[in-house]
Design goal:
Radius of gyration: 17 Å
Low-confidence stretches: none
Strand content: 15-25%
Structural class: alpha/beta
Mean pLDDT: 92
Distance between the termini: 42 Å
Order of helices and strands: EHEHEHEHHEHEHH
Number of domains: 1
Bound molecules: adenosine-5'-triphosphate, magnesium ion
CATH class: Alpha Beta
């Protein structure tokens, strides 16, 4: 494969923000596929507050079923211990033949990238597509990062996506408060949430 996109996330639940970010990145950057990788044990999220890996990955599976360019990988779910992006990217390079890897991430998450494990190696393994999210001055982040780390020149691309205001936190809160979540996420995921009584009480 020449160009592969990856979008990692808790996906608790997956919503149109994720799906649009992946689809726009795919078309803008000419990606052959986008791989959704649900996080196993998010190192920076409180484990007691995250739905089970099985439920989260099932929601992703249902959400992407009608897009032939999307796939889901449980590789982080099968790994013991905390999930670090660098381990995932190393694994992908070891198991797949790819020319270029693009890691799709919201600018909220991207602004922390120099605090992730082995940032130098990360930038060797992948380029980043930073999707604008509210409340983050992404352009300043890129400008400052380039001043401090000139070697990452050309490795961060910014992308605007229409559904930037949607967040999983807001969806969970709405469910807990008995409010509607229609049109924020695929209908099949909404039904799955209802059937499984997810997010009824905010833990
Ligand atoms: P939470 O509110 O629980 O943090 P989230 O909506 O941010 O959930 P995550 O699973 O944390 O979703 O996000 C996975 C990735 O998708 C992150 O890189 C995040 O920045 C990005 N992302 C989430 N929502 C959007 C959105 N509306 N537009 C663009 N990117 C998004
Ligand atoms: Mg988030």
């Amino acid at each position: 494969m020449k160009r592969l996109g990856i979008i990692g996330g808790t996906f608790d639940p997956i919503h149109f923000g994720h799906l649009l970010a992946a689809e726009m990145a795919r078309t803008e950057f000419d990606l052959e596929k986008v791989l959704f990788i649900p996080t196993g044990n998010p190192p920076h999220k409180d484990l007691n507050r995250v739905s089970s890996a099985l439920l989260r990955s099932e929601m992703v599976r249902r959400a992407i079923v009608d897009n032939e360019y999307f796939a889901v990988s449980d590789l982080e779910l099968e790994r013991e211990g905390p999930s670090y992006t660098v381990d995932t990217l190393r694994f992908i390079h070891k198991t797949l033949v790819i020319d270029q890897l693009f890691f799709i991430t919201g600018t909220d998450a991207l602004s922390e990238v120099f605090n992730w494990h082995y940032p130098d190696e990360l930038f060797k393994l992948t380029q980043f597509i930073g999707v604008f999210r509210p409340g983050f001055d992404a352009q300043s982040f890129v400008d400052i990062s380039l001043q401090e780390h000139p070697e990452i020149e050309g490795k961060i691309h910014l992308l605007k996506v229409p559904a930037l205001g949607i967040s999983a936190t807001d969806i969970r809160r709405r469910v807990a408060e008995g409010k509607s979540i229609r049109y924020l996420l695929p209908e099949c995921v909404r039904l799955f949430i209802m059937e499984n009584h997810l997010y009824k009480d905010l833990k």
